[in-house]
Amino acid sequence: MKSVKDTLLQRRSIRRYEREPISDEQMRLIYDTIRNTPTSYNGQQFSVIDVTDADTKIKLYELTGQKQIKTCSHFMLFLADYNKISILAEAKGIDVPEFTDTADGLIVGVVDASLAMMSALTMAVSLGLGACCIGYARTAAPQAISELMRLPQGVFAVCGLAIGVPRELPDLKPKQPQSLLIHHDAYRQDDMTEELMAYDTDVTRYNATRSGSKSDNDWCGHIVSYYREAMGYEMLAALRERGFDIKK
Ligand SMILES: Cc1cc2nc3c(=O)[nH]c(=O)nc-3n(C[C@H](O)[C@H](O)[C@H](O)COP(=O)(O)O)c2cc1C
């Protein structure tokens, strides 16, 4: 098992996998890690669907266009989940307020599911496995994926995680320097433009020279183009379908 330092500092997204399966012991460790995720109020407002069935993975690939889902060994879908607490509250005769209809209710579920995904990813990487988060599992076809995964009301797909035995080792991507990411005692008040420009140049250079597919993408323009694409997502409607009718 890798050290925590290597696990976290050498981590990179892995999108190509060997056909080898992941052992039961490794999956048990990943499941146990997911179970021990810190969650808001210990409410555990999340669930995970571990998809290994080849046909289901192909359907998910067709819905998202993300090849990793088809080729990985385990595709895990991380869900914000208020279904379980509702079942128990009803059985115990406890009235549940419409927390799912609030922005904070959504955030709580999304944070819990995201932390669980990062826990799973970290354990997988420490075991020498490769992993890649798949946000398109949320955005590409929310209704079709909810139906395929048979999600009940109060359950919303936040993000996917493809895990497999790595078949590539891409170069580590340049990340923002500490000075841009870590603010001390309060948010920085000085002008960050120059440091941001320098980082943009780093990313442009990385994209032009990295091993594998190269591009002339910068950082800022490329990320903003993702935002433009995302402006077309109908996430509010997708959330409403799942029983999250955000009102406040
Ligand atoms: C929430 C989230 C969603 C992501 N969705 C996708 C995705 O749908 N497809 C993909 O190929 N990579 C996806 N990624 C991987 C990112 O592209 C990757 O983390 C980023 O480029 C940084 O590279 P690194 O992970 O190698 O450091 C996602 C990552 C996160 C955290």
Write the layout of secondary structure elements.
Layout: H1 4-9, H2 24-35, E1 46-51, H3 54-64, H4 67-71, E2 74-81, H5 83-91, H6 103-126, E3 130-134, H7 136-139, H8 142-148, E4 155-164, H9 178-181, H10 193-209, H11 220-230, H12 235-241
Helix pairs in contact: 2-6
The site of flavin mononucleotide has 11 residues, from strand 3.
Biggest pleated-sheet summary: 4 strands, antiparallel
**SS summary, helix count:** 12
Tell me the β content.
Answer: 5-15%
CATH superfamily: NADH Oxidase
The name CATH uses for the topology is: NADH Oxidase
Separation of termini?
A: 45 Å
Structure characterization notes:
- The protein is α+β, with helices and mostly antiparallel strands and 248 residues long.
- The protein has a single domain, classed as NADH Oxidase, CATH 3.40.109.
- 47% of the residues lie in helices and 12% in strands.
- The chain contains twelve helices and four strands; from the N terminus they run H-H-E-H-H-E-H-H-E-H-H-E-H-H-H-H.
- The protein has helices spanning 4-9, 24-35, 54-64, 67-71, 83-91, 103-126, 136-139, 142-148, 178-181, 193-209, 220-230, 235-241; strands spanning 46-51, 74-81, 130-134, 155-164.
- Helix 2 (24-35) runs antiparallel to helix 6 (103-126).
- 26% of the residues are buried.
- Flavin mononucleotide binds next to strand 3.
List keywords for this structure.
single chain, 248 residues, alpha+beta, NADH Oxidase, four-stranded antiparallel sheet, 12 helices, 4 strands, 47% helix, globular, binds flavin mononucleotide
Give me a quick take on this structure:
This protein is of the alpha+beta class. The chain contains twelve helices and four strands, in the order H-H-E-H-H-E-H-H-E-H-H-E-H-H-H-H. It is 47% helix and 12% strand.
